[in-house]
Structure formats: structure tokens, C-alpha cells
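Entry 14. Structure prediction run on the chain below.
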Amino acid sequence: MSENQVACLYIVATPIGNLSDMSIRAIEILQQVAVIAAEDTRHSGYLLQQYSVSTPTISLHEHNEQQRSEVLLSRLQQGESVALISDAGTPLISDPGYRLVSLVKQHGIRVVPIPGSCALIAALSSSGLPSDSFAFEGFLPPKLVARQQALKNLANEGRTLIFYESPKRLRATLADMVEIFGQDRQVCLARELTKIHETIVTKPVAALLDWVTNDHFQQKGECVILVEGAPPQDKDDIEINRILSLLLTELSVKKASAMAASLLGVSKNRAYDMALKLQQK
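Output returned:
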């Protein structure tokens, strides 16, 4: 290997759409390693062919990662370098690879990132939402109740939230966000990034839902959803909510709010309104 004579595992980012985003360094590494571990060897075959990469490939996906990791570790220990790629973007970001990297590092073998495309970073940089602090949550649960609960748990998160979502669930997820985050929360839909039909639109979430509902074209392709962080909560409200959350596990809204009002010295009406909101979540 030209970069390092000692065998190592390269984590190689690949384009998320536009093939011109492939870096020269990534191409050189893929040409030089002994084997490429790919999420889908047939899918990656087209990309590798475009750049005259004839290196042998081996599949590594969520169903065989444990077994394949042992195989690749053995090859690394024998002095062969390995590259890991996913179907698109940076490996391990909502894609397989964690078990392999963890195993390799446990055995003292060097892991080298070859940076490049990443959908969540591309979306964040162009969304117009705050980028100084953010939280990537991956894919939301596909089932309604679990998805809504996940969003409720994030309702007061002050950082920009980033999700990947299937186009089949896009409308349902946006509808849940209207209900849980409120209709005025700013949300960005970044769809088909770097591809011909790239769309990056930021609107109040209710308006975004209406737009997507009325334009079926926006319900196709790979989606990244970014959500503006919640406004800072008053410290008193945080404490009231904390106490109410504990009391509501055992008491009715009326009794919990009355007890919270007495304990914290706030008005019963204020405590009651806040308890209602917590119960609705």
C-alpha cells in the first residue's frame, strides 16, 4: 500500500448520488487494497467499474456482519489491507460496519477513514437551520406508536435534529411532527441529494406537510429530515414538568397539578395546563 505498508482497514466514503463526488484518494485506496467489503456487491459493482477498480469484493451487510468480520480480521492479521464501503455515503452511518471496526480495533489493527459524502452533513450544511449543535437520530421507528413516542422524547431537544426517512413514511412522519412539535417548527426536507431531482426546502412543518401532500413527486427518493431545535425552556417550567412527569405516573391530572402547585408554589391553573400538555404527549 502506498499510504502505509502495514495492513489496515480503510473506511471509504462513496458518492450518495453524483459519481463525480468520488475522491481521488478513495479511488486509489480501492484499487490498492486486497479486498473490498461492500454492503451489496452488485450495487457497488457499477461504481467500481466506473473507476476501473477491479479489486475483489466480499459482501458485508446486517445479516452476515458478525461472520464476515471474523473473516476480514483474519485477512488483516495476515497482512492484507481491507476497504469497507456501503451502498452510498459514509459507512457505519445508519449502515453496517460497527461490528467490524470494533473487532478490528480490539485486535490493535489500524482503522483509517477516507472521508467523503455523507447525506446528513450535506443536508445540514444547506438547510438554513442552526449547525453549531445537532443530533443525528437515524431512522425513526416505522410503526406509528413507537415513532410518535420517539418524537415525544425529543420534543424539548434544543439541538437541530436530523433523521433519515423512507419516502413511503414521509407524510406520516411529517404529520406526527406537526402534532408533537407544533405546526410552526421549522423543518427541512432534503431529498435526492446530489442527484438530478435534488430538493432542499425549509418551511414551517405544517406548510411542508401540505406541500409534500399536494406534490406526489416529493414523496419519492431518499429523504433527510432536519428539525429546528426547541426554544429554550424556562428553568421553572423544566422543574414543574419534571415534578409533574413523576406525579402523573400515579395520579390524575387534577391531583398531580394540585400537588405540584403546592410543592413548587405556582398557580394551580399553570400547573394544570402543563399537566394536560404532558398527558397529551
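Residues 235-280 form one domain.
Filed with the rest of this week's runs.
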